[in-house]
Amino acid sequence: MTTAHAPDGVTGSRTLTVRYAGGGTRRGPVTMGQANMIRCILRDEPASINIHDVWPVPDGTGMDRALDALAALAVRHEALRTTFPREAGGGAPTEQAVAAAGSFTVTVLDHDALPEDTDAYAEAVARAARDTRFRLDLDFPLRLRILARAGRPVRVALAASHAVTDGSALGVLRDEWLALLTGEPLPPVTSPTPLDLAAEERTPAGRRKSAASLAHWERILRTGPQAMFAEDGATGTETDTPGLTLRSARGARALAAAARRTGALPGTVLLTAWCVLTAHRAGQSVCVAAVPTSNRFLPKLARAVGTLSQDALLDLDVRAPSFDALLAKAWGAAMNAYRHSRFDALDLWALIGRVTTERGSQFARDAVFNDISALPSTLAAAAAPDEAAPELELVWGEAQALPTRLLTFVYETEPELRLATWADPALFPRAAAEELVTGLVLLLEAVAEGDLPLDPPGLTGVTGVRPAARGPEWVRVDGCWVSPAAVAAALSGALGGRAVEVVAEPDPDSDRDGRLLTAYIGTDERTWAGQEPTPHQAHTALMAVLPGRPGVLAPHRYVFVEGPPRQPAAAQRILREGTGRGRDAT
């Protein structure tokens, strides 16, 4: 490992090789979580899928002691001694191999004097280390930089492979790193290793759990909104989003008071409030959100070192008369999501492909809520300033590319509420993003005082957050907000510019919203002879352009008419029609 360009202020840079030996050699299948992250690693840019952390170094720690502690962690945890052998034919790895001995490198960046804000500097070094891809079959899964002052280590800035660790695992490693350097004894490792988890997942009980998880996802994919934020301005599948950090003693006091008043856990109160505010802003009756840390809700997994990164998919119907009434069912909805958060990732993506094609939708992972406040500490959770918590402070950070429209990480709930939110700037300009975050504190304060009605005008009055403004052209179809004009434009483009009109028509057989989309596609009879697409071809072409268009739902019926697609269709000759979901014309 080498450093191409030394950061400003570095007086010397050297690469050290650290060897370790211990444990045994093992080999076996990958876990479901590993398979999920390997898929992302092979698809995404390294900066967006690698993760990072910064570890403090206790005063007086020498370089040899720091390197010995890193080697001890590698011996202690099989995950750090794991690689993923290449598959014949170049497919995604399906096996993991644990080595009994090996080596890794550490880049030491020495300084005469470190910047005043050492943590911010270390954070920047760690984030930069994410830019290089990990080789799954060869690399040690931690890319380590030791920031030193006159030869003495001060911080460890690292990037990590998401195939081997997740944020919680880095928190466990960080805790144990500090214990090793301060001489505290480490308890035996009792959490299952990745190979243990893989074996458990392949038992009959494990396969039944995976099947139940897929059924849970399928129900939501078929009935929930295809996107939480289907509105003007919501475009693209990835947004360059700045982070907004909240620190608030007010929020912590309100959350604690609301938990005491309702008798609910603080985490459940906070999740419910976030879902209420998200659904209110999105103008949705259901909050569908990914809850990634759910995989550690089992005690045996709380301190597991490995990647358990799979989404629990929460769907909470927020149509309740009051906050307390919603809170009563939120815990059950969350637990239901948590129980269904371990699945075969390849099977899930096959399911998503099949269901979305049949429904004519494109599922968008728009909203993500990640509460890591009760998990082992990470830098973000542990690096709060020593001064008293502010009543309410907002700080903007750097932007990063995210495949979501609203992402919230909760780092701490007492003695201050500390969280970071990344909100799509196309939907949430800076003032609106700040309004959303402060609105959460205001909502918690209102809930602390007493039960709160959940009518939209009342919520706007309490939080200052207004629902999305949609014009009269937007309609609800099959549980989704849809713009028929946007559907027509997308279908026209997919069909090479043909004239298209899309209308929402009554559906007497539907028990959801009571409307169906019908696309009328103009054609010229003179060119009909085998030249026009079938409904199936039209549907396939539209599905190919759906990603990044949350306001577009595929029509339930495609009708090719002679001439321009004018209404009423009865006045025109229908040349061909069908659902498009099958290969037949009708």
The assembly state of the depicted protein chains is single chain
| Rg from alpha-carbon coordinates | 26 Å
Strand order across the largest sheet: 1-6-7-8-3
Given helix and strand content, the structural type is alpha+beta
**Outline:** globular
Total DSSP helices = 16
Distance between the termini: 61 Å
Low-confidence stretches: 1-6, 378-385
For the biggest sheet, the summary is: 5 strands, mixed
Helical percent range?
25-40%
Kindly list the characteristics that best describe this protein.
586 residues, alpha+beta, 5-stranded mixed beta sheet, 21 strands, 34% helix, disordered N terminus
Word description of this protein:
A five-stranded mixed beta sheet has the order 1-6-7-8-3, with helices on both faces. A five-stranded mixed beta sheet has the order 12-14-15-9-13, covered by helices on one side. Strands 18-19-20-21 form a four-stranded mixed beta sheet. Residues 1-6 and 378-385 have low confidence and may be disordered. With 586 residues, it is of the alpha+beta class. Helix 7 packs parallel to helix 11 (345-359) and helix 8 runs parallel beside helix 13. The N and C termini lie far apart (61 Å). Helix 4 (118-128) links the parallel strand 6 and strand 7. Helix content is 34%, strand content 24%. The protein is built from 16 helices and 21 strands. The protein has helices at residues 32-43, 46-49, 63-76, 118-128, 167-182, 194-201, 204-223, 249-262, 266-282, 323-339, 345-359, 379-382, 430-449, 456-463, 484-494, 535-544, and strands spanning 10-21, 26-29, 51-56, 82-83, 95-98, 101-111, 142-149, 152-160, 239-248, 286-291, 312-317, 367-371, 393-402, 406-412, 417-423, 475-477, 480-482, 500-506, 515-523, 557-562, 574-578.
